Amino acid sequence: MGTDLNSPNLYINRELSWLKFNSRVLDQARYNDLLPLDKLKFIAIYGTNLDEFYMIRVAGLKSLYKAGVYDTGPDKLTPLKQLELIRAYIRYEFPTLEKIYLDIVQELEDNGVLIKKYKDLEEDAQEKIKEQFFENIYPIIIPIAVDATHPFPHLNNLSFGIALKLKGKDGIIKHGLIRIPRILSRFIRYKNIYIPIESIVENFIKELFPGFEPIVSTPFRVTRNADLAIEEEEADDFLEILEEGLRSRNKGAIVRLELNGDADESLVEFLCKHLDIKEKDVYYYKHIPLNLGSFWQIVSDKDLAHLRAPSFIPKTLPPLDNEDVYEAMEKQDIMLFHPYESFEPVVKFIKDAANDKDTFAIRMVLYRVGPNSPIVKALIDAVNSGKQVTVLVELRARFDEENNLRWAKQLESAGAHVVYGIPGFKVHAKVAQVIKYKNGQLKSYLHLATGNYNPITAKIYSDVSFFTTNSNFSSDATKFFHLLTGFAEYKKLEHLYMSPTQIKPKLLRLIEKEASYGKEGRIILKANSLVDQSVIKALYKASMAGCKVDLIIRGICCLRPGVEKISENITVSSIVGKYLEHARIYYFKHAKIQTYISSADLMPRNLDRRIELMIPIEDKSISDRLYQILTMQLADNLHRYILQSDGEYIKAAAEKEAVNSQELFEKYVSKLSRASKKSAKKNIAKLARKMLKES
Hints:
Blueprint: H1 14-27, H2 36-66, H3 79-110, E1 114-115, H4 123-137, E2 142-146, E3 160-167, E4 173-179, E5 187-190, E6 193-196, H5 197-203, H6 205-208, E7 213-224, H7 235-248, E8 254-260, H8 265-275, E9 282-285, H9 296-299, H10 325-331, E10 334-338, H11 344-355, E11 359-366, H12 374-384, E12 388-393, H13 401-414, E13 417-419, E14 426-427, E15 431-438, E16 441-449, E17 461-468, H14 471-485, E18 497-499, H15 503-515, E19 522-527, H16 533-544, E20 548-553, E21 570-575, E22 580-581, E23 584-588, E24 595-598, H17 604-608, E25 610-617, H18 620-634, E26 640-643, E27 649-651, H19 661-676, H20 681-694
Parallel strand pairs: 1-6, 8-9, 11-12, 12-13, 14-25, 17-22, 19-20, 20-21
Antiparallel strand pairs: 2-4, 3-4, 3-7, 5-6, 7-8, 10-17, 11-15, 15-16, 16-17, 18-25, 19-23, 21-26, 23-24, 24-25, 26-27
Helix pairs in contact: 1-2, 1-3, 2-3, 11-12, 12-13, 15-16, 18-20, 19-20
């Protein structure tokens, strides 16, 4: 009983835990059963993830270090120590990254697809590329002299270019840069060959600097601090403040310089001096092109479709396959499990409301909706047809700010009532409310979810949608939107749970109650991240009481499982596969309501600094289905990794046969879809339970 649950030894550092997650992403590229472009896709995801990590997390640690902050988390690692460990981890992983990349390159070559530098091309190919250079590249790239009269230019975040040393006819050595704008393709394609653009540009330095002889050159890429520091003001000024913040994103301090492995030492010194960056923040790629995220260009090439697995087509299951969504909702609560089940019913929920003469009002929270959003277009149609439309557009959704800014302006121009956020809090809840005037009275229809209103990401993110006409939930939703748009003293809802005031206390009570059942207790929590110390301590106490705790945490997990007498009853699993596991599902065996879904992860920012919603699932059949999803994922032994007490992850052991939970969900939904076309609707629920049990 005297155990100190605040001991730093009981907590894994969140930044190092994130790096382990990204390593699991990279590990997906090793699966032999994947086609080569599916493997290359994971390198692209790995690189994009790492870019954001440096722009936000590493940049934040550097700022904390400069500010003299020493204690940043329950693990007690200082910002300086974390930066040292991050640098060491990334450098240690480089050989693995490059080995995986070279293996994929060989596999592509075996299939007739090549990634080659310009100098390695055959003469006829070089001639064709030379024509392309002068027609399409030469007029756009920018040669820049750097000397006393030509200052070193400002380089935007994620700028890509070439640094070089030149010798004039007078023998004087000069330095210069060549900017390669993002509007140019990262790889220039010739037949079945993809040529990195920098290898082409380097070959024509003489044409860009006439009269000068190139001595050495090196491609480089810079990463800046891209976290927006916005001083919140009145809503009238918020758009202008955000736009200024977006402009400042390209002015943040340089946090990383990436170079080719053979970069000339004098050019490295030249870049470090002008970019004000230390050698310890320079990273060298020996065999792999800079900007790993740019491999999406090759992965998405339609001509190479045979080198990647065909996309799964989401299904629309009963009762929504041949029944109006609103009529179906009036009969029962409905759950969808994306991306296996289609997101189209969610889009139709808004579109049909916009076109229905009985619709009185539509209210929504939009966090990330993506480009060309059919939902935003439907909301504009609703305004144009005389409906009352109220939308909170969270402008501070990181790296989606510009998208959201554009949609907010369009909605406001159309006549919708647009709210830009709540001072001090990001609004991350996923909720839409449609109010109709039917049979002489107002009736409310709700959609609540774990994921965003984005049809594009809904095809690759695993999320839960929930449709209901529950009057208690509807009453809370109305209060919730009143809170967002007006002034309200109440901070609590009656039947739904809202952060920052309700979700964490409710979760802590549920954990404590389940712990009271000792060895009979069972908790399963599925989330993206587990960082909150209060939740971790509660789980430790539950484990110490004998309660079995299974955590399915895709990314960061600061809880340390398997510690003797403290977390022996806790397992932590991470599933990384074809789809991004994004759903938050919380299960407590002995609770009156066993299952909850939420927009909130188990992190301080979600539980204490954001407005989120957690929904109790009262319908037993839906609750049972969510439990089956959790247990099926815990049985996964192909894409599930298990966290050890030392902070390392190992793959789950495949026993009699391989279990790929994501593949099983695809098969299950496909079978159910086929069966629904043959069976009476009344048999579908029974068939669904049977299939899940068999799986």
